[in-house]
Amino acid sequence: GGRQMRRLALALCLLAGAASSARAVTCTGGNTYAVPGTYGTITTALAAVPATLAGPTCITIGNNAVYGETVIVRNFINAGSSLTIQAAPGNTPTIQPPAGSTAAFVIANDSVNILGISASINQSIPFGVLSSSAFVEISSVNINGAGNVYAAGMSLSSATWLSYSSVTVGAAHGIVLVGTGHIIIHSTATVNFNAGYALFLNGADNASISLSSFTNFVTTAAYLAAGADFNAIIRSTMIGGFSGANNTPGGAGLSMAKASGNSVILSVMLGGGGSGNGSGGSFGNDGGQGLYISG
């Protein structure tokens, strides 16, 4: 229908403009906070930022160090501006959250950008990225949770732009979307989880997901739960895994439950075969309506 065609047109425009990787934000004057030049940690730099932003504000990290902290962004008044935490060009800093953390990045503020900073998680914590706010950009952020993240590599609220990023976790969801209006492009999620998904749209709608890859080595790779409506998956790959049990099917590439008006365009969905007589389907749809598959 017309809504599907408008969503496809938007997705194609995004693809046409997606040739480069993470951008850098330029802030001027007193709105730039240098780590480690002026501040020893990202947390101390955040503490120095005024509660009401005076303009676009940047915390820029100029080395390749490992920072043993949780980056928590909350309680700022944006006043029409944004807060960016980014690596300086040519640098790849890493967050390593301590035991007892909720996540490597906790974002509870609108209009926050996290650019070029990764997380290596060696403690048991729920999330790699936990964002409960809107208009967040995450680019060139790699979450390596191994077997230590137990809820989700990334849990993202409405209107998040995720690009050139990756999630690698064990027994946890990869990327969870709630709310509306997400854009994911050039990103990957890999999990090894029999009770979750590499991509989980938990009622999220109007998302555009393109040029991305989602793999679950155990069961279904991508799942659209009830209420996950009017989403578009374009030029992406979803690979389900082996269940490992005799006469039990492996995972689907993509599965939906009562999710309506979704489009899958020029994408690959592969289901894993179970052992014995088990076999996995590439796609499963339980009660959904209006699925449009092209290519």
Summary?
With 295 residues, the protein is mainly beta.
Sum up the structure in keywords.
295 residues, globular, 38% strand, 11-stranded parallel beta sheet, 9-stranded parallel beta sheet
Secondary structure elements and pairings:
Blueprint: H1 2-16, E1 32-35, H2 42-48, E2 57-61, E3 66-67, E4 71-74, E5 83-87, E6 94-95, E7 105-108, E8 112-115, E9 118-120, E10 125-131, E11 136-139, E12 142-146, E13 149-156, E14 160-163, E15 166-169, E16 173-177, E17 183-185, E18 188-191, E19 199-201, E20 208-210, E21 213-216, E22 222-224, E23 232-234, E24 237-239, E25 254-257, E26 263-265, E27 268-270, E28 283-286, E29 292-294
Parallel strand pairs: 1-2, 2-5, 3-6, 4-7, 5-8, 6-9, 7-10, 8-11, 9-12, 10-13, 11-14, 12-15, 13-16, 14-17, 15-18, 16-19, 17-20, 18-21, 19-22, 20-23, 21-24, 22-25, 23-26, 24-27, 25-28, 26-29
The global form is: globular
Q: What is the topology, as strand order, of the major beta sheet? A: 1-2-5-8-11-14-17-20-23-26-29
Helix and strand composition category: mainly beta
Cα distance spanning the termini: 17 Å
In the predicted model, the low-confidence regions spanning at least 5 consecutive residues are 274-281, 286-292
Average pLDDT, all residues? 86
Count of β-strands:
29
Largest sheet: 11 strands, parallel
Percent of residues in beta strands?
A: 35-45%
**What's the gyration radius in Å?**
19 Å
